[in-house]
């Protein structure tokens, strides 16, 4: 894409031609938040993508991902309410915004997907996208500058796999490998009856899940990585048994075996299983992650930029994990905008090896933004263009729109 046309679509074209010119012009441009637009696009049975777009009084726009909340109606409500808090304030009010929304988020519960937290995060993402675009720098420069230009991403095949049999998961894994991914994640225990007292029924589902993992391992071979998410379907005793059964499959990680509370159960799985463990996608804020990290719940923490409090919070949580000698791997079966927001933050932190990419959900995924999202051979490129480096492709959004 030509720089001028990209900038024009960001609302920046009239401001000048050189980077210095853009920066000077941006400094004098009105950067007060003016208006909010929301786009909703249909994905699949697992939910829609909800995209927020803030516009400044000078016409610069920024994007944020408000997908996968517990209620789209309520996320729309909070997007409107919180955008009113920002209206008239300049876009360098992200820290103020964090404080201004804190009590409302806590009152409504901040556990993964709570609409108030998701809405606040999406608007904060918009602010950092706008800041970058206004000053002609990629958003990662606002967080310290990147030390990685691309990331290994694992293909989460769970959301696109309709056939939940070993053959179905193996087929999805083969598609991901054919698309160039060398790390595959599945969650094959989703059908488990959570509160069943029938031990034989639980064992039947556990056996089926293990068979699915074996089928995926066989399909991808030993040279690629397999990641398993147990979606908190096990108690401690059964979880330890699962970890033992999975040892021969040489997993990259085992994620969220028992529920997150009590955290001691996660810590027991972590200390007693031989493979790395990961989790934390539903936790909000540094104060949520601190006890989790301190308890030794996992080897790899998984803040989700949509749920954890936003881009600043993601950087703070990653720093806490770094201090504890842990890796960070952002959770996020997200839209390309959510993935871009997370990528611009983690490009600046050293303790990241891999993060999530939702594979195979819709064929037009990369085209939802312009220029399209770049994932090549299982590596997501972090854009060096201003802001997140993308604008919304309104034609694709309109074609797949869900009425608001
Ligand atoms: Mg998970």
The CATH class of the largest domain is identified as Alpha Beta
Helix content: 40-55%
Major sheet: size, sense and barrel closure?
A: 10 strands, mixed
| Assembly status | single chain
| SSE pattern | HHEEEHHHEHEHEHEHEHEHEHEEEEEH
Ligands bound to this protein structure: magnesium ion
The DSSP helix count reads: 13
Poorly predicted runs are 14-18
Structural class by secondary-structure content: alpha/beta
Mean pLDDT rating: 93
N-C termini distance: 31 Å
CATH third-level topology of the largest domain = TIM Barrel
- At the fourth level of CATH, the homologous superfamily of the largest domain is Enolase-like C-terminal domain
Shape: globular
Integer-rounded radius of gyration: 21 Å
The name of the CATH architecture of the largest domain is Alpha-Beta Barrel
Write a brief structural summary.
The protein has 404 residues and is α/β, with parallel strands linked by helices. The chain has helices at 3-10, 19-28, 72-86, 94-108, 115-134, 166-178, 199-220, 236-246, 263-272, 285-294, 311-323, 336-346, 394-399, and strands spanning 33-44, 47-56, 61-65, 150-156, 183-186, 225-229, 253-255, 277-279, 300-301, 327-328, 354-358, 369-370, 375-376, 379-381, 391-392. It contains 13 helices and 15 strands.
Q: Would you kindly provide a written description of the structure presented here, covering whatever features stand out?
A:
By secondary structure, this protein is an alpha/beta fold. It has two domains: 3-136, Enolase-like, N-terminal domain (Enolase-like, domain 1), CATH 3.30.390; 142-391, Alpha-Beta Barrel (TIM Barrel). The chain contains 13 helices and 15 strands. Helix 7 (199-220) links the parallel strand 5 and strand 6. The protein is globular and about 65 Å long. It binds magnesium ion.
